[in-house]
Task: inverse folding
């Protein structure tokens, strides 16, 4: 059987397509246990959590409402440029609803802390946070997600929605970007 070639801009593959699919399905089962048959209002942080959200909502059979929020904090670099900026806010009513906030990665904690506080301000019945990746080594703001797909080391990763300068989101796996590519 031929070996799959790694993308030329990746130093290594951190998580394969199969590993991601298995964990997303397991997260779906965990959500079912938490919410039962209740409706869930899912708030997705765009663009990074797009693929994760699409796969996760197919792993549950609850009724769902979906809203998207867009922030920016990285621009074209590999380091956050300070406080996250809200680019597009919520459109659905969250008052009295079970809200699940989804993001691709929890690193500094700044974005998820900001958005969680904003959602709490509109009085949901409950608020939980689910992230695909948790990079604890980068935490600046004390914040923990309720559900985590994978704990990862402090490496700059791309793929499965995660990007560098809006590239690599379409990769089926999550890989570590080569250092020389990060400077390009």
Result:
């Amino acid at each position: 059987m031929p070996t799959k070639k790694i993308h030329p801009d990746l130093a290594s593959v951190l998580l394969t397509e199969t590993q991601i699919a298995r964990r997303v399905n397991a997260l779906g089962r965990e959500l079912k246990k938490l919410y039962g048959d209740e409706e869930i209002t899912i708030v997705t942080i765009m663009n990074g959590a797009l693929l994760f959200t699409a796969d996760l909502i197919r792993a549950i059979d609850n009724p769902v409402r979906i809203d998207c929020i867009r922030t920016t904090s990285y621009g074209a670099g590999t380091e956050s440029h300070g406080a996250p900026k809200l680019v597009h806010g919520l459109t659905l009513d969250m008052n009295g609803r079970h809200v699940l906030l989804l993001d691709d990665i929890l690193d500094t904690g700044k974005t998820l802390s900001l958005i969680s506080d904003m959602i709490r301000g509109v009085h949901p019945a409950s608020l939980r946070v689910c992230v695909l990746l948790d990079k604890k080594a980068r935490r600046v703001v004390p914040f923990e997600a309720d559900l985590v797909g994978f704990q990862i080391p402090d490496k700059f990763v791309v793929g499965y929605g995660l990007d560098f300068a809006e590239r690599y989101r379409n990769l089926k796996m999550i890989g570590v970007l080569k250092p020389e590519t990060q400077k390009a």
Remarks:
- The mean pLDDT is 91.
- The chain has four helices and nine strands.
